[in-house]
Amino acid sequence: MAVTIKSEREIELMRKAGEILARTHEELAAAIRPGMTTMDIDRLGEKIIRGFGCIPSFKNYNGYPASICVSVNDEVVHGIPNKRRHLEEGDIVSLDAGVIYKGYHSDAARTHAVGTVSPEAEKLMEVTRQCFFEGIKFAKAGNHLNDISSAIQAYAEKFGYGVVRDLVGHGIGTHLHEDPEVPNFAQKRKGIRLEPGMTLAIEPMINAGRPDVIWMDDDWTVKTEDGSLSAHYENTVLITEGEPEILSLRL
Known about the structure:
Blueprint: H1 8-31, H2 38-51, E1 55-56, E2 68-72, E3 75-77, E4 92-101, E5 104-113, H3 119-136, H4 145-157, E6 162-163, E7 169-171, E8 178-182, E9 199-202, E10 205-207, E11 213-215, E12 222-224, E13 230-232, E14 235-238, E15 245-246
Antiparallel strand pairs: 1-4, 2-4, 3-12, 4-5, 6-10, 7-8, 7-9, 9-14, 10-13, 11-12, 14-15
């Protein structure tokens, strides 16, 4: 699949998808509390998304059984919601969600504290979020994809964190996953030259320990190999003639 350049009409639809996804994340963030189950989060997320007249991007995507990926503590991504898995005070929980609005996707992730968390967990969440913003400083027409990737890695590693190599960001549009892949770590090649109208899901996945990950027996849930905490922060980003536009964040 070639990298697609979106028309003004397509960009408007993706803006709307992004706005709805941002509101979904805001409502989920407000609901998180100790004692709720990961299934509670999924059901609420799906209700919110469908309430806006959208379809959850993830539901039944390649067989994934839920609308919201809910990953707790050492789970990096793709945690499957479970009615027996209760959030506890001090946990961190990563929520990855997508919406389809009139045929166009938006994709975003946030990691949240459950109640009061350790200073180490707070720092990991903040650095992971900032990795995204360090990366998009380079998400400008004329730059190369690797400029984004290198900036994310450099910032995370200043804190001694591990940047996950086995999972990457991606292009997005009428498909949830489009070209190009968007690594969070430097490549030997420059990668594609960025052009106005490209839309990218940029998503640092940062481990407090080593970068290595393992897949669980459910074939979805990815955990840190060393059991360290992991955080995830993602937005759908539009490359413009000037500064990048974050489509899935209401500033």
